[in-house]
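# nightly structure sweep
# worker-07 picked up a monomer target from the shared queue
# config: single-sequence mode, recycle default, output format = structure tokens
# input follows
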Amino acid sequence: MKKTLILGILFILLGYYLGTFIFNEKIINKYKKEEKYYFLQEGVYSNKENLQTNLNSLNNKIIDKKDNKYYVYVGITRDLEVAKKIMKIYEDDGYNIYLKEKYLSNEEFYNNVTQFDLLIKDNNDTSNILTIEEVVLANYEEIIKNK
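# output follows
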């Protein structure tokens, strides 16, 4: 039993290091392409006053400023089925959500969103889905916006 456990941990660590090596090498970076993401947009605001007035009750959100406008996103996914599931949650709470396609080329973010999409697909609990999306949004800010 101990031998099997030790071998299992050893192979997991070996797989992790090999995976990290392959993804960080030029082999994968040569074929970097943009992937399609679905951004769930709550709205676009022209100034901060309107933004703060309308979004005080919205906890999970990221705000992108572009061309002197504030774009508010409440979710990011790669799967249209997951996007519809999240849209329904927010629309049931009274928000109008718009689906916006964006293309990004970050392998780490792609892998994270793909894994989180699988979790959301297998989950029907609203609070769990919103918690997962909160992590996705934080991941977006950390990986994409801060680079």
